[in-house]
Amino acid sequence: MRYHLVAIVRSRYDAVAIVRSRYDAVAIVRSRYDAVAIVRSRYDAVAITLHWVIALGILALIIMGLSMTHLGLAPLAKFQLYQLHKSIGITVLLAVLLRILWRLSHRPPPLPAMPPLEKAAAEGTHGLLYVLMLIIPLSGWALVSVSPFNLPTVLYGVVPWPHLPVFPDLANKAAVETVVKFIHGKLAWLLTAVILLHAAAALRHHFLLRDRILARMLPGRTAKEPRS
Amino acid sequence: MKSLALLIALALLSPPALASDWTVDVPKSHLGFSGVQNGAPFQGRFDKWSAQIAFDPAHPDAGHAKVTIDLASARTGDSQRDSALTQAEWFDVKGFPQATFEATGFTAKGGDVYEAPGTLTIRGIGKTVVLPFTLAVNDDKASVKGHLALVRTGFGVGQGVWATGEWVALEVGVDVDLIATKSGS
């Protein structure tokens, strides 16, 4: 991504650089010791790709999960839906692990100035999203592993995927399955609520507050700045 | 007593009713099975098995056959199902790697129809079954076709939640289609 230096304003102690990238809003970067740092105002391509892959995956998983358990489907369709749910669930788990590794090694763009309470709410929501995005697929994996059906998982019918350790060897598999199934289902509802909150907040920033919070996570083209 | 002695003497003197030995051409033969899962029929086959057959059409009752099947070689075109089949709930290949069918004495039922009564052993459970088959012999080539209907739970195939026919039908079929060559007499 290219950044164009718009201006450098020096004061006695600080240097302030005003930079503009091709797609992004103006970022004002201060450095106390005259060195000017350029800070990204958008997430990078890897983070954006992972975010939307995970988002689509979770949306599909929620719809499938509800269909599997509530629609009273024919046995074959239901069976196949379960298998696909397992495949997509593991895919999302792997994408979330990558996302977390990427996030830890790549600093996200800083938030614009906002009330401390809102900032805390945003950070808390993000933290909760990460926790749920780990626990829910792991509980699903445990559920498959402890199921008395002992059905092997073959991702997309191609890649064999093992059971978690310990769970398949438990003596009271049916009882443990009931508990894990309860946790998996309830946490999925909680995740649905947190995602709605997350999306509502992003839309509020975009349409009501008219800042670039949402744009920094949108794929490049749609975030292009209007020509002026 | 005299006639019995004569009978024994005749039996000893006459050429022994030595059944012919046949070599089964495993790659050209087919040992298959079929079932119904979630209402959808499926076909499978065993890739690894061997058969020893002694059979003389003139003396079917003196015939003998033993088929040994490597259960881990079951293939149904669905890797998840194949993987499930090896598990303890199904064939339990760790505990019972092989199934066997041993028949002693065949019965001619007229024409090219025969029956092979024998013992089928799966998961260590042996049961008497009768395999009906047709036989076509052409010079030194023989073709054997047979079908056996089984109830899988009779052999413990499908444990626990699988012991009902709710998801996988209890009725399964075994299909035998052998090509054999006479290997001497």
Summary keywords:
heterodimer, A: 228 residues, mainly alpha, Fumarate Reductase Cytochrome B subunit, three-stranded antiparallel β-sheet, two-stranded antiparallel sheet, B: mainly beta, Lipocalin, eight-stranded antiparallel barrel, 2 helices, 49% strand
3D architecture notes:
The complex is a heterodimer of chains A (228) and B (185). Chain A is built from four helices and five strands; from the N terminus they run βββαααββα. Chain A has 228 residues and is mainly alpha-helical. Chain A has helices at residues 45-70, 75-105, 116-146, 173-208; strands at residues 3-10, 15-21, 27-31, 153-155, 159-161. Chain A is elongated, with a radius of gyration of 22 Å. In chain A, the strands form two sheets. Chain A has a three-stranded antiparallel β-sheet, with no helix packed on it. Chain A has a two-stranded antiparallel sheet with strand order 4-5. The longest helix of chain B is centred in the N-terminal third of the chain and has 12 residues, at 2-13. Chain B is built from two helices and twelve strands; from the N terminus they run αββββββαββββββ. The two termini of chain B are 33 Å apart. Classes of the chains: A mainly alpha (228), B mainly beta (185). Chain A binds chain B through residues 74-76, 78-79, 83, 148-154, 157-158, 160, and chain B through 37-40, 78-80, 83-84, 87-89, 160-162, 167.
